[in-house]
Amino acid sequence: MNIAIVGTGYVGLVSGSCFSEMGMNVTCVDVNESKINSLRNGIIPIYEPGLDAIVHKNRSDGRLHFSTSLESCIDDCEAVFIAVGTPPGEDGSADLKYVLEVARTFGRTIKKYTLLVTKSTVPIGTANKVRKTVEEELAKRGADIPFDVASNPEFLKEGSAIKDFMSPDRVVVGVDSERAKELMERIYRPFQLNNYRVIIMDILSAEMTKYAANAMLATRISFMNEMARLCEATGANIDKVRAGIASDTRIGSKFLYPGCGYGGSCFPKDVKALIRTGEENGIKMEVISAVESVNNSQKRVLFEKLNKAFDGNLEGKTIAVWGLSFKPETDDMREAPSVVVIKALLEAGATVRAFDPIAVEEAKKHYLGDTIYYAQNIYDASQGADAIALVTEWKQFRLPNWKRIKEGMRGDVVVDGRNIYTQSEMTELGFRYYSIGK
Fold first, then answer.
1. Of 90, 89, 85, 152, which is closest to residue 117 (Cα–Cα)?
2. Cross-strand pairs, 352
3. Domains in the chain, start-ordered, CATH in brackets?
4. Model confidence pLDDT, tens digit, residues 4-31
5. Alpha helices in 248-285 (DSSP H)
6. Where are the beta strands (DSSP E) in 248-345?
7. Model's pTM, two decimal places?
8. Which residues are catalytic?
9. Residue 23: half-sphere exposure toward Cβ, Cα within 13 Å
10. How far apart are CA 36 and CA 23, in angstroms?
């Protein structure tokens, strides 16, 4: 089977490499010639555990190809997947210009029945716009070529995307024809041999499912962060509260960890888009709007704790920030809490020494520039520091040499934004320890 994936960002590159791993002949297309040349030379533009190995293997085996032109491969393709970006506008709505440009190219070039699948996260009703765009291009050609549009939202977790794609807990497919249904089932059958988990539905429901899933997970996070604030105010312990409610089988334990706010490319963007979709349809999304508001506030919680620890005066203080990416096992800095914390610290007159195992280059290029010192490791970051702020829970931060750190610090404050340390241990080591919800 021959398929094309348009867009070689996170979703497109992971999808294309995993499809090729299952034996399909895949062409990943991107208009960015520099990126395509890099991929052809084995340079992977994003960090995702295991991705480089699977790309190199399938390139070597001749199943994975890279091109700047959809026209060059579409004649052989049974399906074309759209995996381009849908960046949020100022009003929170998703920008569909790249999606619709793919639809125009598709309509201008297909010569036989081909399925066009939206894998990008798109607003409800996008498939109808995509279909209309293709039909307009076909009409310009005076061509009567059959095609279908389908929705196949992705549910990949950064840091474990290869595993998620190769062994999905579910595959959501939205179609409106039997032919499209059969083709999508054939595409995903190799991934489902042990447990068939393709969920077929109408296209509008598939588009909505993606937003609803991310909004639900974001809601759980914001709920726990709000409960953590209440626990601090009342003297309760959020870790014990979490254990108590997570034991309820109706609730479960996932996404119930308090912290310093969610970030990344999905939750913030999708929550905003869902609020905007509600506005466009006359529905006030009150719960989701509150989720966003709580998260925006929570991103400042580490700064607030640091400010309180120094009696409201951070001028001249040196703060070590451990972790820059929005979560471990990724270099993604989009909507990362670290950016909010660091900018607030700089505005307060503090100096920042930061370390992240992977995301330093992203921070330098796109978010923080040369406004902070980028350390070589956590010990370098904490050298001469008045306080440490743990933002991202990388595994290597779990058991540091605290004696070495304490000897190199000027101060004794540790603010734990992910609750990975314990009060008794940190107090015994001589630190003033602040955590979330305790």
1. 152
2. 319
3. 2-201 (3.40.50.720), 211-297 (1.10.1040.10), 299-434 (3.40.50.720)
4. 999 999 999 999 999 999 999 999 999 9
5. 267-280
6. 318-322
7. 0.89
8. 266
9. 7
10. 22
